[in-house]
Amino acid sequence: MRVAIAGGGLAGLACAKYLVDAGHTPIVLESRDVLGGLVAAWKDEDGDWYETGLHAFFGAYPNMLQLFKELGIEDRLQWKQHTLIFNQPEKPGTLSRFDVPDIPSPINVIVSILRNNDMLTWNQKIRFAIGLLPAIVRGQKYVEDMDRYSLLEWLRLQGVDEKVNTDIFIAASKALTFINPDEVSATIPLTALNRFLQERYGSKIAFLDGSPTERLCQPIVDHIIERGGQVKLNVPLKQIVLNPDGTVKHFLLRGLNGAPDEILTADLYVSAMPVDVMKVLMPQPWAEMEFFKKLDGLEGVPVINLHLWFDRKLTDVDHLLFSRSDLLSVYADMSNTCREYANPDKSMLELVLAPAKDWIDRSEEDIIAATMKELEKLFPQHFAAENPAKLLKSKVVKTPRSVYTASPGRQACRPTQATPIANFFLAGSYTLQRYLGSMEGAVLSGKLAAQEISKVQPAIADASAPDLQLAAS
Ligand SMILES: Cc1cc2nc3c(=O)[nH]c(=O)nc-3n(C[C@H](O)[C@H](O)[C@H](O)COP(=O)(O)OP(=O)(O)OC[C@H]3O[C@@H](n4cnc5c(N)ncnc54)[C@H](O)[C@@H]3O)c2cc1C
Hints:
Blueprint: E1 2-6, H1 10-21, E2 25-29, E3 41-43, E4 49-51, E5 57-58, H2 62-71, E6 77-79, E7 83-87, E8 95-99, H3 107-115, H4 122-145, H5 151-157, H6 162-177, H7 187-198, E9 205-208, H8 212-226, E10 230-232, E11 237-242, E12 248-253, E13 262-264, E14 268-271, H9 275-280, H10 284-287, H11 290-293, E15 303-310, E16 321-322, E17 328-333, H12 334-337, E18 348-353, H13 364-378, H14 380-383, E19 391-399, E20 424-426, H15 439-456
Parallel strand pairs: 1-2, 1-14, 2-10, 7-16, 14-20
Antiparallel strand pairs: 3-4, 5-9, 6-9, 7-8, 11-12, 12-13, 15-18, 15-19, 16-17, 17-18
Helix pairs in contact: 1-8, 1-15, 2-15, 4-7
The protein binds flavin-adenine dinucleotide.
């Protein structure tokens, strides 16, 4: 079957990949001149990459890891030591580590928490562990039910010490969702914690060895094209045109630079566009349906990704760091963590600024100035010293609407990949799947959409096409 997919982010590309594998013919239509959506990256005038977001992969990403395997590109993931590293604002320039020993889960994570004495006292650790018990014992159903509470409310209900919130959960919440624990649904960090506690290497982090556009999206595109699918750039979906019975008649594609609009007809249609765009393009008759009305409850959250190139090496840490700063979330010295960005003499810090709602409309100069002030606390030896490190150049990438805002109650608004419209499907990390708005969630959503499509009619081109398997989770 010919399947038209609007959106060339990871969800759209994964959907197309699994459709060609099942013998279908996907046509991916991406509005921009770059693939990847929220993982898109560009080269500047010096040939240096800059990205929409600093991206970390986790051991607990079974579908993403399976995709790497299927594409034969597993060697592009640069796995780091199994540890989580936090800055300590009260002791500027120092780090605190949760080293996870190579023993079975959940003992490995528990040992890492018990061994860390920088951030929590024994009393706080014990109360934290007791608070977590229901999530561990009662499993995912309990975790889903906690969507009615913010993380902060849930921590208070469990009697967990406020210091666990300020020391650990503010950093975790900002890193996972770009919002603070008083705004984030308890379900999100509890889901992540559950995965980390259940899988031996769940919290192990990897970086890609280069830009996601070239090193991850391109091999997916090659795979799709080699098997008869198509991936087109600069083709924005303008309108979803309906038949009288409410099913999709065709996609109307906007002609760019004076070119006329075009009609694309297919057997089935997928939106892998961000939820905010899907809401704008929602055909009027669908807007009244309960299934689509729920999307009104979802909205992309603002986030800012900064790249700062310095005249010297600021650190030799080859890992993701949780800044624990009010302004920033996670950061990494990409000159250490990423093979293609490597530089033995100069640092390139990539930093996520979140929550970004008060910053998204501010000037780049303001954003960089505020970030440089934070660096004085993160690297006092280089910025508060006599001969401070010099900023050589910078790039700021603002995303006013990124992943869906994961506030309490959002789980009920996330739509399934199959819709009430027989020939229309949804993919995207905001759709209902067991992971939050993440790369893993995007890939899984694309795979689930391809599975739903394969139910409509069995694969026709290749009788030997393998069934779609969800990675063990
Ligand atoms: C700063 C930042 C840091 C992040 N860090 C991490 C991380 O460390 N780990 C992690 O797992 N995840 C991370 N994420 C989240 C992750 O990037 C996303 O969840 C995931 O990439 C979303 O993929 P998607 O395909 O669902 O949506 P998108 O990437 O938003 O893709 C949607 C696509 O649709 C296209 N489109 C829009 N309108 C149209 C139209 N009219 N016609 C055709 N196409 C259209 C867009 O251009 C885009 O390419 C981060 C995100 C950001 C922004």
